[in-house]
Design brief:
3 domains; 12 helices; 20 strands; 9-stranded mixed beta sheet; 7-stranded antiparallel beta sheet; Elongation Factor Tu (Ef-tu), domain 3; Rossmann fold; single chain
Length: 445
């Protein structure tokens, strides 16, 4: 039997304080006042002084409200019935479907024991050349998408949700505009991908505490699916909104602020979520791709700055496309040697030539005279940006590699590409077609 308390000592925004004994961190409580009935979560303990974050907000709560502790942390129902459903950040149905209560699992648990993990070894194909060819996404990887406000990071995540070769998509939205929420829902529904997707969406008008719950709920559900042997991709947007929610609560609780007002444990809070990425040794996997906006396009802002120390690379989204310079998948070498013989050569060769193209653009802008090689680079760079970098390009990895060869052959002589003669003989357009009949003839003999 859990004790009930009838006195609230302090109310500040969405945070209330009561004196209680035998309470644990992150424990849930029911707060009932004359006009308000809401769940709350313990967010700080100091002796018998307990601070709780009220899900529905502190408005309408009186000092004589009833607080009943439930003796458990926040839970979410888990089953295949979640697939195709849309929920709030508090796991309440947002799609007018039935509430689910079977098989509850606690959220916010510890990361998986390293002894149960295996080295990442499988590629997650997305159909986006700038990812598949140049910075391959690997199962169990954790990668942020760094973008300034106004960049199409939500459409990018929606495309990845449609095209990624995984079993389950978990979409966690934090601080989404209502139009963005509808875009995700309608895009996935119209394409048929909603049937393999679970959405936990916190909009800008929802209680702030639900923003903090979204990553934990999304990852708790992802872990259960992964334990069933499924490949799960968790898409989170926007982790800067998550950090801003942490900052708002810290200010309400009068904590001493750190860099730019964020709490001193910002790194630990972010790492606790990102480290849930895992490839189980005898089950499935969790891969995390999280949009992180950079206020003022400042990569030294505390949120992207701390994120960079946690994750295994990053994608930079600039001018509506994934920027090849700065973007990095530190695990790509684990998989891109097992796709096709020319993968690494195309990856390295095309990026080197694109870097030379950018230098030529600088020469052109400063009025230098351009030679034949510079004009070739300009032709190449324009095609590379239009046919490879554009987010509208949607082709499988093998076709993307073939397209890379076609662009190179259209602009350069084989010797100018810097690619080995062995690969040139095998994959250069024209020579590849000549080699095929010879191989067939040898097979007939």
């Amino acid at each position: 039997m859990h004790r009930v308390y009838h006195r609230i000592d302090h109310i500040a925004g969405n945070v209330i304080r009561v004196r209680a004994e035998g309470v644990s961190y992150r424990e849930l409580a029911e707060v009932t006042s004359r006009t308000v009935s809401s769940l709350a979560q313990v967010i700080r303990l100091k002796d018998d002084d307990v601070s709780l974050q009220v899900f529905a907000g502190g408005r309408g709560i009186a000092t004589d409200a009833k607080v009943r502790f439930l003796g458990r942390a926040m839970q979410v129902s888990f089953s295949d019935a979640l697939l195709g459903r849309v929920f709030t950040g508090g796991a309440v149905p947002r799609d007018n479907g039935p509430a689910l209560s079977d098989n509850p699992v606690e959220i916010g648990g510890p990361s998986v024991n390293p002894a149960k993990r295996i080295i990442p070894r499988n590629m997650v194909r997305t159909g986006i050349p700038m990812i598949d060819v140049f910075n391959s996404l690997v199962e169990s990887q954790k990668l942020p998408v760094f973008a300034r406000a106004g960049e199409p990071y939500n459409p990018l995540l929606a495309r990845i949700a449609l095209q990624a070769e995984v079993d389950i998509i978990i979409l966690g939205g934090m601080g989404l505009k209502h139009d963005d929420y509808l875009y995700f829902r309608d895009t996935l529904d119209e394409s048929g991908a909603l049937s393999r997707t679970v959405m936990f969406v916190h909009t800008a008008s929802d209680p702030i505490v639900e923003c903090l719950l979204v990553p934990d709920i999304s990852l708790a559900v992802a872990e259960q699916f992964a334990l069933q042997g499924r490949r799960v991709l968790v898409l989170l947007t926007d982790m800067t909104n998550f950090a801003d929610a942490l900052r708002e609560i810290a200010i309400t609780m009068e904590q001493v602020p750190s860099n730019r007002g964020y709490p001193g444990d910002l790194y630990s809070q972010l790492a606790a979520r990102y480290e849930k990425a895992v490839d189980f040794d005898s089950a499935g996997s969790i891969t995390i791709l999280a949009a992180t906006t950079m206020p003022g396009d400042d990569v030294t802002h505390p949120v992207p700055d701390n994120t960079g120390y946690i994750t295994e690379g990053q994608f930079y989204l600039r001018n509506g496309r994934i920027e090849p310079f700065g973007s990095l998948s530190r695990l790509k070498q684990q998989v891109n040697g097992d796709t096709r013989d020319d993968h690494r050569a195309i990856m390295n060769g095309m990026i080197q030539l694109y870097a030379a193209y950018r230098e030529t653009l600088e020469k052109q802008s400063m009025g230098f005279r351009l030679g034949d090689w510079d004009r070739k680079l300009l032709r190449y760079g324009e095609r590379f940006e239009k046919e490879m970098m554009s987010l509208s390009v949607n082709i499988p990895l093998e076709k993307a590699l073939d397209l890379g060869w076609e662009i190179l052959a259209d602009v350069f002589e084989p010797v100018e590409t810097g690619i080995s003669s062995k690969l040139i003989e095998k994959f250069w357009p024209g020579r590849r077609e000549q080699a095929a009949p010879a191989g067939e003839a040898a097979a007939e003999k």
